[in-house]
Amino acid sequence: MNSIVTIHSFRRGAGKSSLIANLAVLLTLQGRRVALIDTDFQSPGCHLFFGLSDDEFTHTLNDYLWGKCDILTTVQDVTSRLGPETSGKLFVIPASDKISDIMHIIHTPPNIEQYMSGLEKLEKELKLDILLVDTSAGLNEDTLQAIAVSSVVVLVLHPDKHDFQGTAVTVDMIRRLQVPAIHLVLNNVPDALDVEDARLQLEQTYHCGRGIVLPHTEELLALSSGQPFVLCYPEHPLTAQIKELAEQL
Ligand SMILES: Nc1ncnc2c1ncn2[C@@H]1O[C@H](COP(=O)(O)OP(=O)(O)O)[C@@H](O)[C@H]1O
Ligand SMILES: [Mg+2]
Question: What is the pTM (predicted TM-score) of this model?
Answer without folding.
Answer: 0.96
